[in-house]
What does this fold into?
Amino acid sequence: MQKRKTVLDIQRMKAEGEKIAMLTAYDYPFARLMDMEGIDMVLVGDSVGPVVAGYDHTLPVTMEEMIYHCRAVSRGLGQAFLVADMPFLSYQVDLREARLNAGRLVKEGGAQAVKLEGGENVADVVKTLADMDIPVVGHIGLTPQSIHRMGGYKVQGKQDQQARQLLCDARAVQDAGAFAIVLEGIPAGLAGQITAALDIPTIGIGAGVACDGQVLVIHDILGLCEKYSPKFVKRYADAASLIRQGIKGYIDEVKQGEFPGPEHSFS
It folds into this structure.
């Protein structure tokens, strides 16, 4: 039986040039299947809002929702490293609340690390969490909790000034104590520069192949989320058609009185 991956394992993968595979999960069945296939990292993302709860964006997601989904996912993992998103308003108010909420994700949710969005502006939060021995994953570029400021889900870092700021943000997050960082929605060339400049692993999503690893939303790669279709997503299966086929078969048999049959009934 494989042992649970740790921060040291993830950092060693960058040092040895091994790509890091990461996916989101929000429940026990999906987490178990990912773990069986050898996924390196699992993210309980605040993307649970749009993907599972049907919200328009991630901002309404609460700490209680994150803890619930994190706890479910943690039960399905045996070897993958588990990261939980800190939802909006769980770390922006003050450092005390940030410490408390990050601690809850670890203690109650079973997370091994937390992820939070921002660069230089959240370096103090990253440091205070790292100082209390909670591993932190940073997240810069297109940060979904900042969609109102950004004017939507738009690629960041196309202009020189933006690109320079993102590099400063990445270094600030690393220097504050993060052990890895997500680069979302930035030009591939810039992501490559940031990856080369940092000692910690970079996990890309819409940031090109030069990153140390990649993360995608599980529902996106399985064709289960029709609300969004980002350019950076590749669909690896059409699970929606298979599921609809099963549901239709059930409905048809119930309507026609074919289910339940004798083999599904008690005498």
